[in-house]
């Protein structure tokens, strides 16, 4: 009896692709398929992964044109007529094959002031936090971002505008803006209101629709738009 297989196309660059026939198994993920190709068909294939259980986000790739965590994507859910196309994440430089350079992604995180600005020293008492406070609720809504860059790859604004900070960096800015323990309020507003900032967002919503952790970067960016506008008009008075 013939072994059932999947037809897998690996997109290595914009003008190069390689096809493989991969044995099909029950509960097989896209990452399982890529791993099989690297282990049994093409040991030169480069890709990135770590935990395999949806915790680290490092296995994110483009599957049939959509950015996904490949460890959490069952191949049966994405096959089209028994075939699937797998490529690197969009909007990031390709190092080799399915591996992208994440530096531009993290550089924009820093450019958005997505770093903690201390408000107390280690010698001070820890500030009490009310989990029900509206600002704390907003801050908590985005803290599960694990920097997988799925939202960044999904964003058409990033594709068209290389200076745009992107959904993850802006969501991080919004998280810290609402964090009572962070002292970077003015610095964050300045960073996210300039060239490449939140007002470049077209609110298409791909970031929110495709976030594997079900976060809502689009609403966070809308919050930044409101706060930067308020800050602008206050200064004009």
C-alpha Rg (nearest Å): 21 Å
DSSP strand count = 7
User: Any idea how many domains?
Assistant: 2
Query: Helix/strand-derived class?
Result: alpha+beta
Through-space gap between termini? 80 Å
Shape descriptor reads elongated
CATH class of the largest domain: Mainly Alpha
Strand order of the largest sheet: 2-1-5-3-4
Q: Helical content, roughly?
A: 25-40%
What's the story with the biggest beta sheet?
5 strands, mixed
Number of helices: 10
> How do the helices and strands follow one another from N- to C-terminus?
EEHEEHEEEHHHHHHHH
Q: What is the architecture of the largest domain at the second tier of CATH?
A: Orthogonal Bundle
Q: State the CATH superfamily name of the largest domain.
A: Alpha-helical ferredoxin
Low-confidence stretches: none
Overall pLDDT confidence: 93
Proportion of strand residues? 5-15%
- At the fold tier of CATH, the topology name of the largest domain is Fumarate Reductase Iron-sulfur Protein, Chain B, domain 2
Summarize the structure.
The chain is of the alpha+beta class. Helix content is 37%, strand content 15%. A 5-stranded mixed sheet has the order 2-1-5-3-4. Strands 6-7 form a two-stranded antiparallel ribbon.
